Amino acid sequence: MLVNNAVETEQMMELLELAAKLGEIELRQHEMEKHALEKAAVVVENRAKEKIGEYQNEAGPFIAWPELADYTKEDRLRKGFTENDPGLRTGEMRDSIEHIVMDGEAHVGSDDDHLVYFELGTVKQPPRSVLGGAVVEEIDKIIEIVGESAVASLVGEGVFNRKMRIEND
How far apart are CA 29 and CA 36, in angstroms? Predict the structure, then answer.
């Protein structure tokens, strides 16, 4: 009877250790998720800001940026801006792009209505995607960041330089 109790006690301790370890993994997973979302949001925010003022090629479903209309170029020059830097005048629209991470989500955007018109277009202005295009262009980097975070939350940050080695058959 004493042997059974000792075995049961040892098994109970192993289960408690496993539960504690799973709790640690869950906490680490939440930390790593927030870290990954922050890092990915910064990547998208920075790329979006870089796009303004430079003509962009097609990116996924987003069309290449068309040349500014002649009257727009003339208006820019009249107001003291460079002729042909789409979306860039004072830098205010570019600088309005920010990110926020909360509740397991990352949001990159702006409260500047001009960026909405620029991104989606208007009756007179074709769309010139900044935010959507930035995500498409950085998707591989975003996937890498999320993947590294998932591995790190399971096996620890120091293992394999935050990457899991997978060998082919």
Answer: 10
Spatial separation of the C-alpha atoms in residues 115 and 11, rounded to whole Å: 61
Question: Alpha-carbon distance 26 to 86, whole Å?
Answer: 46
CA atoms within 13 A on the CB side of 99: 21
Rg of the chain on CA atoms, in Å: 25
pTM of the predicted protein model: 0.79
Residue listed under structure tokens 């940050």: 157
Pick the closest to residue 130 from 144, 141, 142, 114 (CA basis): 114
Residue 101 gets which letter from DSSP? E
Q: What is the pLDDT of residues 16-29, one digit of tens each?
A: 887 777 777 677 77
